[in-house]
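Good morning,

Both structures are done.
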Amino acid sequence: MNDERSNASEEREEKKPVSTEHVNLKDGNEVFFKIKRGTALKKLMETYCERQGKNMAAVRFLVDGERIQPTQSPEDLDMEDGDTIEVMM
């Protein structure tokens, strides 16, 4: 019985926690978002536009000068903690 419990706790310890990264959005001001590496950036883009009162179709989001798509994730773009997404209106 004790062996079963210790095996169960070992299995829990082996599971890797989901990585959460900080992503900065820059439009003259910096806005910080916490997002999981595998999450589509659409959520972040929509939330940003909502807070700014902007239409998402009128805003461009760039990483390293390249436009990003809502279906891409930080993992797809090889982004790291603290990377910045530029916002052009």
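Second structure follows.
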Amino acid sequence: MRTLSWKHTLGLVTMDVELADRTLSVAVTPVQAVVLLYFQDQASWTLEELSKVVKMPVGLLRRRVSVWLQQGVLREEPPGTFSVIEEERPQDCDNMVLIDSDDESDSGMASQADQKEEELLLFWTYIQAMLTNLESLSLERIYSMLRMFVMTGPALAEIDLQELQGYLQKKVRDQQLIYSAGVYRLPKSCS
């Protein structure tokens, strides 16, 4: 069985934002695009209302909205209420406040997660080969074999026992492994 796992934090959306007096072409994260799309239906939102609709914590949502404040698409007036700036006025440019939207750390975390996922994929290849040859192995035996064959040399990849156990349990949930009587084995269709 195959499954599809969405990675909502990755990628960019290129979109044209059409306002009364200007059109902006921007590349933003999918979450930032979704936030702005809600302003098509309603010109003004409080942070709490938008948080409920988008299903995102208020603090995180505020950071996502900040990119639209920086672009001059939204304004916060009164505090906690955001509305669309259809026509840019000179005083809007003067009052524009630049806020760190924290997206650099998001992409950094995403790339760090991608790197970890690549390492785990390397482990998975070895684990599949071990289980194909030896049929079933305990967590400790898999770990010691990985330490012997994979976690040595110049391209040092590390994983601790708890991380490995979590990764193997994820493979069990994804039906790529079977766990019974304290040992892991590949499903019959995989071997």
